[in-house]
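Intended use. Records like the one below are meant for learning the mapping from a protein sequence to its folded structure. Do not use them to infer anything beyond what is encoded.
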Amino acid sequence: MTVSGFIIKNAFRNKRRAALCVLSVAMSLFLLVTLLVVLNEFTNPPEDAGASLRIAVRNKVSLANPLPVRQRAVIEKMAGIDGVTALTFFGGKYKNDENTFFAQFAMDPEKLTAVFGEAKMPADQLAAWIKDRTSVIVGYDTAQRYQLKIGDKFPLVGQIYPVDLDLTIAGIYRGTTDDRNVFFHQKYLDELLGDPGTVGMWWVKARSAEEVPGLIDRINAAFANTSAEVLAETERAFQMGFISMWANIKILIGSICSVVVFALVLVTASTMSMAVRERLRELSVLKALGFRRHELFAFILAESFGLAVVGLLLGGGGAWLLYNSLSASALTGGLFATLTVTPRILGTAALVATGLGVVSSLAPAWSIMRLSVVEGLKTLD
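Structure written out for the chain above:
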């Protein structure tokens, strides 16, 4: 019998225990990968290709405070700008949904391609949306979820604003990192609200990434010491501002991951200890035949490491297949647009599995190295 065959035979001597150990490792690593994926989505939201050129301009006091329409003329006159659009979050409910999983925004339809060029749709649909003040365009994921098509009615019941929207779908876009959002005319919302002369915020598209820092400074300075001071920031900084509202989400998920790893060590260490305890007599015979302590340690380490690797392939590999083959939006009920198992996450899982294989073999290996041949031969299998 070869050394590798000897290790494999010992690892699966008790098939039920080995299977339960592998499944425990697999499920724990699957949970670990899932937690790391969720943490990655919270702390590193996906960005569109043009995100580095976009600037979000909101009220310096709060997102809930609107901005006056007159600011548009000042911003549009600044050098280095490709486009400016209002963007007002509506926050309505669609039909009988308890929790509407997509966001709704009022904007200037003529500026869609200039500011959000990643949103792709047929030219005739874009033209129809621009022409009809009461029309709306919906993201592909939302259209798929509700089985929507061009010409369907799209009512939204106001929750923030005291108005309801009676919209008609003019187009379906796709190509952004989040194809769930819907966009309608800012003028239509203004009309229903009695033309308040305000918008939620401004989104600005710079001509180049080099001009973004200067534009941010000029926009902030232009409205400093006014009744509506603004905070201009990159799209990335704006997204991270939302993430900061989750407070200690990193600490919470990190704590859960630590508990998972700790429990995993206990399970595998217990399994290896029981497996070695059953073979004390055999290992003592190997000692008597001339096998050295480091060779016996290598046998135990290989067995422990092998079980951990099989668990990694099942757990980590299963998570990778699941999140790459299923729609993240459907899987999470619309909470996440994407769920990406990055190489770094898989590397972390592999590192945990490697450490697991080593740590769980230390205690049984130490007991074998301290055990004398005579004492070991006295034990019963």
